[in-house]
Amino acid sequence: MLLSELTKKEVLDVNANKVGSIMDVELNMAQGTVEHFILKTGMIKKVPLTADKIGTIGEKVILTVSKESLENSPVGLK
Predict the structure, then answer these.
(1) Beta-ladder partners of 25
(2) What angle do CA 3, 61, 75 make, to 5 degrees?
(3) CATH code that applies to domain 3-67
(4) What is the pLDDT of residues 36-47, one digit of tens each?
(5) Looking at the DSSP assignment, which residues form a beta bridge with residue 77?
(6) Alpha-carbon distances of 43 from 21, 46, 53, 59, rounded to whole Å
(7) Cβ neighbours of residue 60 under 8 Å, at least 6 residues apart?
(8) What does the alpha-carbon distance between residue 49 and residue 76 come to, in Å, rounded to a whole number?
């Protein structure tokens, strides 16, 4: 899958509630790995997602966590 195909994909939580969309991907160039997927959940709120929170990627991205757990997450990007 191309990065351009991943960005803007709709993201659903484990209960099939719309959470937001994938906005960007943070890469670790030294290790050649994905650090975080950046999830846009509102007008300005951005939440970093690690790969363990993503269940499947297809037409939509399905998470393994609930929307509430993301909203209560202390980590956020501005």
Answers:
(1) 37
(2) 85
(3) 2.30.30.240
(4) 999 998 888 888
(5) 46
(6) 11, 9, 22, 23
(7) 9, 10, 11, 12
(8) 10
Q: Which residues contact 73 (CB under 8 A, 6 or more apart)?
A: 47
DSSP string, 6-63: HTT-EEE-TTS-EEEEEEEEEEETTTTEEEEEEEE-SSS-EEEE-GGGEEEESSSEEE
Domain residue ranges in the chain: 3-67
Is 36 in contact with 26 (CB distance < 8 Å)?
yes
- Give per-residue pLDDT as tens, 7-25: 889 999 999 999 999 999 9
